[in-house]
Amino acid sequence: MTTRARANGGRGIAGRLATTQSPMLWLLGGLALCLAGQLVFHLKLGLLDGLVLYAAGAGAVWRSQRGGQDTEQALPLAPGLLAAPPASRTAKWLAMAAALASALAVVLILAPDLRLFPAQLLVMGAAALWVWAGHTADARPFAGPSISDFTVSGRHRLGLLAVLVVALAARVWDLDRFPEGLWYDEARIGSEAWRILTDAPFRPVYSEGTTTPAAYIYLVSWLEAIFGKSVFAIRMASALAGVVSTGLAYAVARLAFGYRVALIAAALFAVARWDINFSRIAMQGATTPMLTLLVVAAALGALHTGRRSLYALLGVSLGALVWFYTSNVFMAGVMVVALASLAVTQPKRLWHHRGGLLLAVAGALLIAAPVAVSTLTSPAEVLNRPQQASVFSTTPPGLLLPAIWDSAMKHAGMLQIAGDRNGRHNLPGAPMLDVVTAVFMIVGLVVAAARWRQPQFALVLAWLPFMLLPGILSVAFEAPQGLRAIGAVAPAMLLAAIGLAAATSRLQPETGNLAAVVLVFLAGASNLSTYFGPQRQDPRVWEDFSMGATILAQKVLAAEDRDRVYGSVHYAAHPTVEFMTGKPANRLEPEMHLPIRDDRGATFVFAEEEPVYYALAAAYYPDAGCQPVTRPPAPQAVAFTCTVSAETVAATRGLPVTVTPESASSGGGPREFIATSGTITLPAGAPSWQLSAVGSLLAPKGGDYRLWLDGPEEMRLLLNGRPLVSGGAIANTSLAQGLHQIELAGRASGQDVRLLWSGPGQANFEPIPQEALYRGAIRPMGLTVDYRNGENYAPAPALRRTEPSPYVYYHVPPIDRPFTAEWTGSLIAPVTGSYRFLAAALSSAEVEIDGAPLVSVGGRLEPEAAVQLTEGLHRIRIRHLVAGSYAHLYLQWRLPGRPSFERIPPERLRPW
Q1: Which end of the chain is more exposed for a tag (fewer CB within 10 A), N or C?
Q2: Is 860 helix (H, G, I), strand (E, B) or coil?
Q3: Quick one: pLDDT band at residue 115, thresholds 50, 70, 90?
Q4: First to last CA, the chain
């Protein structure tokens, strides 16, 4: 061999070696850059830096895919699509057509009359009949390719079984206790499902209670029939859907990309935090991955084998999409793109499948018919929720395109950069994917893009953006939306599996398999530790599951006397309470239940919007178990609870009386006792006494009262610090609903001292009862409020009562809107100094202190101002106009030397 030949030969060997290694080096470099970019996102080091690294990594991966035959062999695919369809017999087709006609007629005729026939059974029967019809259309013996061509080894089956076990464990472990609260929508679904079991005529196609198609509710009802009416039962439907989705992810990847990608895809899906999260919540969206994967699996199986039964199954699964979740309809776009890809690349072979495709379309129309009928007959009802959640309905036309673009960018970044901020959907703000899955998803995206002419890659490339669209087109302020975009979780896992398989396939088989196992394990460890660790402990997640209503339900279930548990108006009729306890809770009405009127204990649950009522209860009963319900480190309470024992209540009832004998010869000193009503019986042992009694009088409603002090003329009654009436006389006075300070003092002898009253609408006097007399910590607090109809302050008040503090949201207005509320009384400054006041209100408000205007909302003054106050009492007046919904008044103060504003506590306010 000549020197030149040796040189060429040597260069040829080196060149071949370089050619073999070059794609691997490009791929490893791309992986490293993508990983660096993801770590930059994870550590929040800079958005632009991460994007640049990811772009460079994607470019390197793209370069690795241009490596010729070696590159193609690095990702072995399943057998090709579009097998020749088998011949079929005309008689079988006629049988299938008859089945279609009869099933469609039954569904269309009977389904609208939902209360006369169980429509869901019709649809299930029609679906089974349709698949059977497709089966009969297959030739016998079947000569085409079979799904059995995709069988794998026993070790591979064990791997798949292990993956399914992990998927099940991740979704059902501690399912009844985490998420800790039962979300509003979950409870509605559970109650609707229970109604299906207990109310025979109730068989909805569309559920008005949940504003969704009803199929998911039927699944839940079957599980409630097995496990009973429980949190575990209603969440089990989603959990099982997640496990089935894992198996279907394997089936889809096996049919499209081969067994190695299939096992990786199933493993990644099993531990995907995005899917685990929704698989543990009883909401319809959890079924979207399962249904969309079923559609694709049926489509791939039909195209691989040409079997009519699989085309029939494809049609049934397509029609079933609309029965579960509105966002599922976007899957139709994915199938159109996939068919378009086949039409471009293999038009003649696709034409041979036209019969099967028509069979699928007809089956889809058959199964979707009841929902379509409901939509046509009641469009406002069926489409109400989608319209409410649509960006088109909530965004002005001039801002529509910018809003959609902004949402698209947020959804594009939700997988790797920043995900859903809703605590029910995600660890707020965290990427929806773990680091490993996020990196290999980008690698898989590039690998698929390099092979876009192959139909299976075109399918998965279309699948991801189409199933992000439901989130992108939702209301802008929710972007990114993990629930409506949950259909993207399946293609994301498939792309990640493609990327991981492509990377590890270049290694030696044993090394590549080990690397794949390690990487999937790292992904699973990251997802599970995040979900059951930081996400479980995060207060934003905890509070987003109707925790206030859940706490009320738990209090009701734990109480010895359930009728003595009172819940906030925000919670009492909440679906969560009704589902967990079987009925609404007693509604807490602070003006009626505080202070407690009888001798029995009670438990109160206040909403986070009612801190002043909680503060009032805690002030009345300082020894009771009153506490805010929080999840550290967040200081914000989601609710407040107070449990007051009967002993604590008894210690606050009645009027404390002190009598001292006037004559030293009578012997003894002062005597103290509790008068249990307005009748004070004097003790024996002295002819006359100096009597003193100080306590609180509860006016059960506002209005004009007459008070009669039946006793010696020397006795005096003071009301709210002012003399009102002498013994033997009657006084007329106007009382606000609530507590008033009373004081009896003077000489008493020879007879009982009686305090009697006649309230609004009463003609006769009666002794003041025990439930109107209080002592100790129960004393007048807050301000007197006059509520007047209309928009001025001149008319006589329609309602007068005391309110604990000018920090109120009118969830239930005290009188019809519009109305005015005039708050009057005294502010008790704890120290001398400079105080700042901050007001917020809807519609308008103005505040005066000591007769001088201080702050206003919607007026001529600023909402924040400072004022110099001396220690002690200061007159305060607030005028608040309520003209519309969401009305509120929030007045806060900042004390001298304090860093922040605070609500004015009831103890620092006096109603007169």
Answers
A1: N
A2: coil
A3: very low
A4: 117
Report the distance separating Cα 636 and Cα 608, nearest Å: 8
- For the chain, the domains span 3-68, 90-390+402-542, 546-627, 655-774, 783-910
pLDDT in tens, 471-481: 999 998 999 99
What is the per-residue pLDDT for 107?
52
Q: What DSSP string describes 209-251? A: TTTEESHHHHHHHHHHHHH-SSHHHHHHHHHHHHHHHHHHHHH
The 8-class DSSP code of residue 390 comes to B
Could you tell me the sign of the dihedral formed by the alpha carbons of 828, 830, 836, 842, in that order? negative
Q: What are phi and psi of 671, to 5 degrees?
A: -120, 140
* % of the chain surpassing 70 pLDDT: 88
**Residue at 353: amino acid letter:** H
Residue 86: pLDDT band with limits 50, 70, 90: low
Strands 716-719 and 722-726, bridge-based pairing: antiparallel
> Is-contact 753 682, C-beta < 8 A?
yes
**Greatest Cα pair distance in the chain:** 145
Q: What is the mean pLDDT of residues 690-703?
A: 96
Q: In a 3-state reduction of DSSP, which class is residue 191?
A: helix
Q: Please choose, from the candidates 253, 334, 257, the residue with its C-alpha nearest in 3D space to the C-alpha of residue 288.
A: 334
Q: How far is CA 303 from CA 141, 250, 311, 458, 788, in A?
A: 19, 17, 8, 15, 73
Helical pair 331-345 and 288-305, crossing angle rounded to 10 deg: 20
Provide the pairing of β-strand 586-587 with 565-567.
parallel
783-910 is classed in which CATH architecture? Alpha-Beta Complex (3.90)
Query: What single-letter DSSP state applies at residue 280?
Result: T
Which tens digit of pLDDT belongs to each residue from 623-666? 898 999 998 888 889 999 999 999 999 999 999 999 999 876 66
655-774 and 783-910 in the same fold: yes
Q: Does domain 655-774 have CATH number 3.90.182.10?
A: yes
Cβ–Cβ < 8 Å for 715, 746: yes
Q: Are 78 and 258 in contact (CB under 8 A)?
A: yes
- Region 758-784: mean pLDDT is 95
What are the backbone angles phi and psi of residue 773, rounded to the nearest 5°? -120, 130
* Res 307: pLDDT: 84
pLDDT tier for residue 368 given thresholds of 50, 70 and 90 = confident
CA distance 780 to 804: 9
Q: Find all residues with CB under 8 Å of 387, minimum gap 6, and list them.
A: 393
Backbone angles phi, psi at 816, to 5 degrees: -65, 145
Query: CA 795: distance to chain centroid?
Result: 44
Tokens of 701: 């409603």
Q: Which amino acid is at 163?
A: V
Q: Which own/partner contact pairs does 45-53 have at CB distance under 8 Å and 24+ positions apart? A: 47/417, 50/417
pLDDT mean over 488-505: 94
Cα separation, 660 vs 672, in Å, equals 9
Torsion sign (Cα): 644, 647, 653, 657 = negative
CA atoms within 13 A on the CB side of 388: 8
Q: What is the dihedral of CA 422, 423, 428, 430, to 10 degrees?
A: -100
- Per the CB < 8 A criterion, the answer to whether 488 and 433 are in contact is no
Distance in angstroms (rounded) separating the CA atoms of residues 732 and 736: 13
Mean pLDDT of 117-121: 52
Mention every residue, 6+ apart, whose C-beta is less than 8 A from residue 433: 272, 273, 274, 415, 416, 441, 492, 496
pLDDT of residue 856: 96
User: Measured at the alpha carbon of residue 503, what is the angle toward residues 498 and 508, in degrees to the nearest 5?
Assistant: 125
Q: What integer best gives the mean pLDDT of the chain?
A: 87
Three-state SS for 460? helix
- Give the pairing type, strands 602-607 and 565-567: parallel
Question: In 3D, which of 158, 152, 149, 448 has the Cα closest to residue 301?
Answer: 149
